[in-house]
Each structure stands twice: as structure tokens, then as C-alpha cells.
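User: Predict the complex.
Assistant: Input components as received:
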Amino acid sequence: MTNAAAVDADGPLALICGGGVLPFAVAESVSRRGRAVVVFALRGHADADLVARFPHHWLRVGQLGAFDRLAKAAGCRDVVFIGALVRPTLWALRPDFAALMSLPRIINAYRGGDDHLLSGVSRIFEDRGFRLLGAHEVAPEILVPEGALGRVKAEDKQWDDIRFGLDYLHAAGPFDVGQAVVVADRRVLAVEAAEGTDQMLARVAKLHADGRIGISAGVGVLVKGPKPSQDRRFDLPSIGPNTVAGVMRAKLAGIAVVAGETVMADVERMVSEADRAGIFIVGAPPGSRK
Amino acid sequence: MTNAAAVDADGPLALICGGGVLPFAVAESVSRRGRAVVVFALRGHADADLVARFPHHWLRVGQLGAFDRLAKAAGCRDVVFIGALVRPTLWALRPDFAALMSLPRIINAYRGGDDHLLSGVSRIFEDRGFRLLGAHEVAPEILVPEGALGRVKAEDKQWDDIRFGLDYLHAAGPFDVGQAVVVADRRVLAVEAAEGTDQMLARVAKLHADGRIGISAGVGVLVKGPKPSQDRRFDLPSIGPNTVAGVMRAKLAGIAVVAGETVMADVERMVSEADRAGIFIVGAPPGSRK
């Protein structure tokens, strides 16, 4: 009997899967490379239709013991954690026994920003013998490359805004604030914190609609970049077709991310929709801060 | 015939008046000190009922020439500019002749954040022989003092969040981002940019309602402070009863501002409503950053 572990020297990959389409872009990429994938789908987060395409188990966020047992039974040592995950209240965690044993560490991790939470969670997995990898390490083609992804290029004035935004993200990094900012004519229109990129873009769309910002449509850039201290194994900034839709509604000129440090989902659809809307998507060289 | 200019050696004060109640707190304070006030109410912004209590003229934002003529006819040399003012589009300005002559400077001022815009506007007034003063210079009692304003005090854990918030505002200052941030357990929940404090608080209320932040009600602080480079004559951070209402809806523990660098409107109502809600309002010593 061939079990999944035999497919690859490293054994199958355990993919802990939150919301959105990105986890499945990773799962497909890893499968194409010939490595088996076992999806651990998080209830209330992962998309059931997409999960069904892969060998999978459903788990609640707090079921650390169940994950440990199922992943080891499947021969998984490497773990990738990917997808949108609303930070659950400690109360909603309903930890199983193994998670309960880690509870002091979890509670400690909860005091502070996302980076702090994620590095705490990462230690919990490593203590149990797993190796936590970044999605980009197992599926490098999901990383945004340098330069323009589609037909539309960023102009010099827009590069001014992009550098301004990257500089801001760098300065705000030690405070573990969000990964994105909207800059128009060197003015910060919106900063992402707990609400996420999509809601921040919706806010800019509303500011436009209410005449609250004296800026023409088609001016301004969404700039995303990882926080300096961010654990890239966990949480790289991501873009996809919904980012393009949000940027269109916010009446911005384009999207800039840090090349090699941002992942993308559904890239063909994203680029064709951006081209059609006249929106640029650029991967800025990692050194492009002033 | 006694004209207004004779009341005080400096002549009457020209108060250019945007939205909200703060302009009238200043006007009343200045009047009580025996100095005449002429209100220049901005159409679409200033509250007509409150404006009617003072000698006044109505102006559009772009009517620089009309302001110049009316203010000089009233014997005003000192100008205070106060109240909420949605940044109008250049198009909506409909500049009069005098403003048209200043248009290159105005257009230049529009490229960049609020500080940049305000310092440009300030030079325009000074070129015409006016002296621009801060509201706190003519009405010092509107400044928030050090310590707790009401019965509720901030606890040590809350002071941690307050210092964290002030440090963030300091780091973000060079980027001319907004004046406020919401911090809970050393985690930044929301950052204010173009949307203003009230909308930022509404966002935190919604994050709570949607279960998007794993934080109990009654945890977290609204921290406001002037940007390091901010022209304090123009635009000090302000709080009032609506800030308390917003903080209540956002389920935060309290409000912290920088003492001596924040103005308050309707202080008695604000403090009594905060006391009733169990919300603290503290003026942090200006040196309380880490």
C-alpha cells in the first residue's frame, strides 16, 4: 500500500487552511511539484467546495491535539499555515486537551499585535515536532515578481507615492500595525490596522463618494508590504482579484507590493481584470524604500 | 461711535469658523475676556444657529478677497482658524480674485498631507498682513490639563497602551498621518488617516460587533496627539462629547490626549457623560512617550 508519506522524501505537506483562495493556489502548486498535500481546513474559515478537491480533515481553530494526531498519522512533518483567519476570541477557541496544555503560551501570545500572536503559535507547533514553513517556500511561483504584472505601468509620480507608502510601512512596522496604506499625492488617505485591506479600500471608496477627499479619481496607490518583524512563514501580504476590485471601487491608480515578499492568488484573473480597468500592479524591488 | 476695534488694543479677533462646537467655545472664551470677535462662518461647515450669536459674515472657502476686505474693515489683524473643515476639491473652491492670485501657492499646498496644506494656507494669510494665532493662544482654558478630567482614572495597564499609542503617533508623524490611534493590549486596532476620529471609532465599534477583534468590551484606549510637525495654530487635536459617545460605542476604556496640546469643546457635558459611562479622559504629560 502506497501511503502519502512515500511520495516525497519530506512526506506530505500539512496545509492548515484559513479563508480565501490563496490556500488552494498553494495546494495546487505543491501537488503539481509531485508532493502530496493534506489540507487541514479550519471550520468557519476555509471554503468547503475548494477543500473537497484535496485529501482533507476539518478542524476547529483550538483543536491542536487533533491536528497533531492526524498530521502525524498522515506522515506530515512540514506545516504551512495560510489563508485569512479572523483572530478568534480566546473564549471562542474551545481548546482541546493539547491546546489547553499550551494555553498559558497562547494567552501570552494574545497580548500584542499579530506578529506576537503568530510567533507564539509558531513555537507551539515546533514544540510538537513540526517544522513550520512559509507558503512561498513550498510554492515560490505564488510570489509577486519585480516589475509590472500587467500592461499598465506605474508612472514617476506614482512611484513617489509608492516609496512614501513603503517608508511609512517601515516606520510603522515596530508597532505591528497592518500591512497596507493608501497614498495619493504624498498624502496618506488610509492606514490598515485590524480591519484588513478590503475594508480599508471600502473606506477610501466611501471617502471619495462622500467628497471627503479632494482628490481626483485615478490618483493614489494601494501600497502593501510585510512588516519588518513579520514572521514570513505565516503571513505574507497577499493580493488577488478582490484586491483589484477594491482598488477599482476606491478609484485608485494601482497596486504596489514588495516583490518576493507578497503572495498572489488567481494571478491570471487578477491581471486581466487589472488590465481591463487600467490599474497597474507592480512588484517594487525590496530595496526601493528611500 | 465705538467700533469693535476700540475694545482691545489688538482689535477684534477674526475667527474663521468651520464645523462643530469648538469654534464657539473659543468665541465665548475670547468674548468673556473682553475682546470682540467677528465670526467668518464658512458656508456648508459652520453651524448657523451658533454663528447667529456673534457678529458674523458668511463666506465660501475660496473667498479670500472678501475675507481680506471684511476683516480689515472690522479692524481685525489677528486671525484664528478653527473647526472641522472637509478638505474641498480644488474645483469646489471657486476662488475669488484674491484667491485666484494665490492659486499657484494653493495648488502646491494641495500636494501633500494636511500639515503641508495648512502651512501653505497660513503663508497666504500672512502675505496679506494678518497674524495667524492658535485657538489655544486666545482661549487657553480650552486646552486639556494634565491628569484625569473626570472621576475615572486610567490604570497601569491602560497607561501601557497610552504610551504605545503616543509612540506610534510620534513614529508616524513625519508621514503626516492622522492624529489618533486605538490601542488595546498593545495592539493597534485602528489608525486614523483622512476619515477622522469619529469614523475611526465607528470602525472599531463595527469590528467589535462583527467579532473581528478578540478583545473584551472595556479594553482599549483612544489616543490622540498632535503630529510632531503640526502647525499648532491651525489644528490641534480636539475632543468633546461626541468623542465620548464614539468611545462608548467602540467599547473602549477611555481617552488619552497630550495635555496642553489638545483642545476640548463642551467640557462639562463631556466629563459628566464620561463619568456616567465609566470612561476615563486623561491629559498625558507631554513628555510621557517612552
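The two ends of chain B are 58 Å apart (CA to CA).
Let me know if you want any component modeled separately.
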